[in-house]
Amino acid sequence: PTIREMREDMGLKYDGFVVHCLKSLEAKGVIKKGDTPRSIKLLPQVEARLKMDFVKIPVLGHIPAGGPVVSEENVEDWISFEEGSLKGAKDCFILKVRGDSMVNAGILEGDLVIASMKHVPKAHDIVVALVDGGSTVKRYMVERARSYLKPENSKYKNIYPEEELQVQGVVVAAGARG
After folding, report:
1. Residues 116-140, mean pLDDT to the nearest whole number
2. Residues labelled as active-site residues
3. Residue among 169, 172, 175 nearest 135 (CA)
4. Average of per-residue pLDDT across 5-23
5. How many C-beta atoms lie closer than 10 Å to residue 141's C-beta?
6. Which of these ranges, 32-46, 53-67, 147-161, has the smallest mean pLDDT?
């Protein structure tokens, strides 16, 4: 498209913003602009990335990293990953962390955790768990055939289930969304 066509399609009054965006994309190595109005081309490596297959993983809401609270199982968003970049992605879900009980494991307030429903939890794995009706993210521990959850912050105590401890997923990746 021409600059005028892009401006009209975006509902803008002036060409300046479109020109600025095109110059920025060219400087970042995403496009190559020729001498004619319709000579904008994607660079081969960018075009290849756009043609890749992606898998979407649901963001189910927030998970506390302070203490268990009742979780909401509503899909709030979807995040796309390149096909093959996350093993077993179709069996994963994403939650946003609230609280600071996992800071020593590098999981901070607002971080996203990707959990796999297919992984079998082993001692010392970080898990998303349902504990007595509330959900949390903690380190899964087994001691003398008894399971409990351990925070990664000395301000918090271990969580020993009164009735039930059910691992909903094993955390396979965590980090800030950005």
Report:
1. 91
2. 101, 138
3. 169
4. 92
5. 16
6. 53-67
